[in-house]
Automatic annotation (TrEMBL), chains A, B:
Pfam families: Aminotran_3 (PF00202). Its cofactor is pyridoxal 5'-phosphate. The keyword Metal-binding does not apply. GO terms for molecular function: lyase activity; pyridoxal phosphate binding; transaminase activity. One of its GO terms (cellular component) is mitochondrion. Belongs to the class-III pyridoxal-phosphate-dependent aminotransferase family. Keywords: Lyase, Pyridoxal phosphate. This is 5-phosphohydroxy-L-lysine phospho-lyase. It comes from Pygocentrus nattereri.
Length: 473, 473
């Protein structure tokens, strides 16, 4: 297969002409054309190698040969739909069940994290017969109509008038690390929302939460938060849905699922999974309890998902689990994640702009602030850093409400050397004269204000980057 | 790859234990385990071959080697997400654009027909700023929360209190083949709904319709219907959405898209596509006009679909188009579809139970009736026929509001000989004494009644079949 069909300029023009512009590119002012990838490395049309720190989907490494082989072998043999009996779907469900608390034992296979979250919503509503959903501020649970309704990250920009619980961010949130029990305190904010909803005569179907909020800014939740929230939500007749679409499959290293960081005894009522599951193949899943699945069956309506659980998708899912075990990728996530955090904390000690370093396993965030007391988000500086690292052929991106958190969610084969390389380059950017000057003195571009609610609107990272680069060169 | 991991009985037990029971099996009383497939043939764990008359998803034939090769080659090379620039997505969009009216030129790639229809709904609502959707009775547009809201086939069973336009079924509907202009008459029913909605102060965002209603009973729409409905819907400020998830990609033979049967000049505002697109791989798409895409971009919110439009999905989509052309599968659909209809019409002339034979290309329906005057649906007989054909190793199934329509939507490589085989077997069932007697005399099992609305509830085909077989043997 030829690696390039069109010259890059032509590809870009065709894309602008043919693909909806709501589908954005990375580095939109100077997009990267990637034609080949292996492990944690991407290659552009000239053969230039990029270190990939963000493709959490390509969990066991881009184009892992064992995954490709499993897919090809099954594609040659059979890819019928799941209305025929087949071994792969049941074998895969059994393998997944072995990673989960016993109570979570009924599986539904679908094609995307969004489909999984939508089905979770249907399960929760059918089981509880209630409608309302409580979510966290800045949450994102998918691109479907039903999910935008429960994703402040999206619907705020569209309507800006729904309610959500505060994000339990102990770095800059309502209760911080100096609070004696932030888990309890944040759980109580959910309790308050429930009470308020009930006073209005509304009933709670569910609490939806990412086990580690991702677009919210790579947030590590305080201990005790989930068990307490689950207690409140269940008392109100609702169920607890853990969205593991970004965080599952051993990314946190010490555990297979990030919700397990909240204690071995804690068990959600529904768990959704997605991105890393098929190493890039569209494969996702919902798992729940017998009671909840039973209520869904009892409505008498078939659930048919055309591609969900087909033999090829399941063969790929099984291969991903095999590679994770064979290559001890959870162990690697612990080792490399800890080393990366250590290196970043050393940088934090030297550079005041690095306000926080946090993470578990290979889910790591580096939060930039203009000032360590006010914690003013260093949005422009984060964009600049990402842009400078791109020039060094390292792919990173930002997250969080102000795009001031540098996120690391690399393929799980990310190495100690990769961690050292990226940390050295960050250090270099932070130390270089021009950069320090840009960071700390010259950059006086106040954000514009949103007409409707006067909230600050920061420039798109890429636009800003181009202006800064123009200044520097 | 070994073809069987577990004994069939064990697979079934594991499935009952691990997979949500809302996910039903074909032939639930005696499910078929399929371990291998090629072209239009399925093979069970004992090597028994089944003729597949229903897998429209496996469009160019199960496990087509060119599709598998294209997938494997691209999986080895790259499967990054569509935020990086890549040739496959733009090349594929251009190839699809060549099959569509010029106006339909902006593409969004997603993973399932349901995701496509949900996005179409978002596009329509964003563009028109209206909410209401008009659908046809018995329509099914997907399994997502937003789509069950617009799918009478599903929501009737759940709530039974929404509104929809009558299904333009000229065999048993409001206006029949003896009507001078059923297309206009049915279009006027949509106009009436629009008027009523507007009197209530509601505003129409869209008319959603399958270009040939499938679960509604393999219905061929009367000519003139779409252009007239589109005129009414647009005059009310709405857009016309053609759901081609089941019917697109040349299934009708004479045209690439089934909406084109309504005239070369007719052009929907949005088209959704899915099932056959990736020959079993989760791949779907929405195409729309520049104006509608522009309105969606203008809301400022990114649309990101993790797997949508990735290089592997697009390589597979391209391979499907290549095979269709190389093997002239549209030509085959015309030839074989016509022959199949001809053979079935010969059976109709002999057997009063065959009330109607209809179809275009390889989208064919055979409607069974207890009586050609009253058109009482022959639900039990249809279940029996499907069951008897299964014993002859032919996979068929029923559709339509009363499961009385035998549907043919085979892989597009279905042959003249396959058509002859299935028609001969149907003939054999219709002719055999025991069957005639079951069909026409002995079967006096009136349907039970739904408590809520007194509509007839027919037995599940498989349960019924087992009772009948028990009687006969």
């Amino acid at each position: 297969m030829s690696q390039e069909m069109f010259q890059k300029e032509r590809t870009l023009k065709m894309r602008e002409r043919l693909i909806g512009q709501s589908c954005r590119l990375f580095f939109p002012q100077d997009p990267v054309k990637i034609v080949r990838a292996r492990g944690q490395y991407l290659y552009d049309e000239n053969g230039t190698q990029y270190l990939d720190c963000i493709s959490n989907v390509h969990h066991v490494g881009h184009c892992h040969p064992l995954v490709t082989q499993a897919a090809s072998a099954q594609m040659e043999l059979l890819n019928a739909n799941a209305r025929f009996l087949h071994d792969n779907i049941v074998h895969y469900a059994e393998r997944l069940a072995a990673t989960l608390p016993k109570k979570l034992c009924i599986f539904y296979f679908v094609n995307s994290g969004s489909e999984a979250n939508d089905l979770a919503l249907r399960l929760a509503r059918q089981y509880t017969r209630n409608e309302d959903v409580i979510v966290l501020d800045h949450a994102y649970h998918g691109h479907l109509t039903s999910l935008i309704d429960i994703s402040p990250y999206k619907f705020r920009k569209l309507e800006g008038q729904k309610e959500w619980a505060p994000l339990p961010d102990t770095y800059r949130g309502l209760y911080r690390r100096d609070h004696p029990n932030p888990g309890q305190a944040y759980a109580d904010t959910v309790k308050d929302l429930i009470d308020e909803a009930q006073r209005k005569g509304r009933k709670i179907s569910s609490f939806f939460v990412e086990s580690l909020p991702s677009v919210g800014g790579q947030v590590i939740l305080p201990s005790g938060y989930f068990p307490k929230v689950a207690e409140y939500v269940r008392a109100a007749g609702g169920v607890f849905v853990a969205d593991e679409v970004q965080t599952g499959f051993g990314r946190v290293g010490s555990h297979f699922w990030a919700f397990q960081l909240q204690g071995e005894d804690f068990c959600p009522d529904i768990v959704t999974m997605g991105k890393p599951m098929g190493n890039g193949h569209p494969l996702s899943c919902v798992v729940t309890t017998e009671e909840i699945a039973g209520a869904f069956t009892a409505n008498g309506v078939e659930y048919f998902n055309t591609f969900g659980g087909n033999p090829v998708s399941c063969a790929i899912g099984l291969a991903v689990l095999d590679v994770m075990e064979k290559e001890d990728l959870r162990g690697n996530a612990v080792r490399v994640g800890n080393h990366l955090k250590e290196l970043l904390k050393q940088l934090q000690a030297k550079h005041p702009i690095i306000g926080d370093v946090r993470g578990v396993g290979l889910f790591v965030g580096l939060e930039l602030v203009k000032d360590r007391v006010t914690l003013t988000p260093a949005t422009e500086e984060a964009a600049l850093l990402v842009g400078r690292l791109k020039m060094k052929h390292i792919c990173l991106s930002t997250d969080g409400p102000w795009n001031s958190v540098i996120k690391f969610k690399p393929p799980m084969c990310f190495s100690l050397e990769d961690a050292e390389r990226v940390s050295a380059e960050i250090s270099h950017v932070c130390e270089s004269d021009y950069c320090t000057s840009v960071f700390l003195q010259n950059l006086k571009m106040p954000p514009t204000r949103n007409n409707r609610n006067n909230s600050p609107v920061y420039m798109q990272p890429a636009n800003l980057l181009m202006r800064l680069i123009a200044k520097l060169e």
